[in-house]
Design a protein that fits this description.
The chain has helices at 16-25, 36-40, 52-61, 65-73, 83-88, 184-197, and strands spanning 6-10, 29-33, 44-47, 78-81, 89-92, 105-110, 121-125, 135-139, 144-148, 153-158, 161-167, 170-173. It is built from 6 helices and 12 strands. The structure holds glutamine.
Length: 198
């Protein structure tokens, strides 16, 4: 891999454009991913915020769920924000019926745990592995992580709830750094992708 990793954004639903822009700023070559062939061509993948039940349904419809599972199992670096975090959870506490996840992080998530749309908020969040002070966490109908398994590392908590987790080459946050001008988490992820490609 050259020093510019190719990082895809799963572009089925959600805030795809914001992630593409954040990845560009973080020094990656960003690409939208909708088809299995496009998935094959990336060194890392972002699963955006949006609505996890819709993303799950569309992933099945577009024939992407199994290819996604297979690539994540074989070590594709992935970063999920909010709905994307839910997609990376091995288990959802309160799934809609038929709701699937890609999995990859040994954690149990609770959807909409921080409340409804009108209870969305911003808070300063100190994230391990992100130097330079807290990041501005934007929480929109955000999940939290109820519990993690032994392989997963907690990177951040907000008011006693786990909001950022890393397991090997998989990263997940309850909040949306792509909606702020601060792209340190995208830079962290781009670094993970570079490292995995060595
Ligand atoms: N509550 C949404 C879900 O279950 C996530 C919201 C978001 O991504 N901002 O998918």
């Amino acid at each position: 891999m050259s020093s510019t990793p190719v990082i895809g954004v799963l572009a089925l639903q959600g805030d795809v454009r914001e992630h593409l822009a954040a990845l560009d700023t973080a020094g990656a070559a960003a690409r939208a991913v909708r088809r299995p062939e496009e998935l094959d061509a990336v060194d890392g993948l972002v699963l955006p915020g949006g609505e996890s039940t819709t993303i799950s349904k569309l992933a099945v419809l577009f024939g992407l769920l199994e290819p996604l599972r297979a690539r994540v199992r074989s070590g594709l670096p992935v970063y999920g924000t909010c709905a994307g975090m839910i997609m990376l959870a091995d288990k959802i506490l309160d799934p809609r019926s038929g709701q699937e996840t890609v999995g990859g992080i040994d954690m149990i998530v609770r959807r909409n745990a921080f409340g409804r749309q009108n209870e969305s908020f911003e808070a300063a969040v100190e994230v391990r592995d992100v130097p330079g002070g807290p990041v501005e966490g934007v929480f929109i109908r955000a999940p939290w992580v109820e519990s993690v398994g032994a392989a997963a590392e907690v990177l951040a908590e907000h008011e006693g709830h786990i909001v950022a987790v890393r397991q090997g080459t998989a990263l997940a946050t309850s909040f949306h750094p792509e909606l702020t001008g601060d792209h340190r988490l995208h830079a962290l992820f781009a670094g993970m992708v570079r490292q995995a490609g060595r």
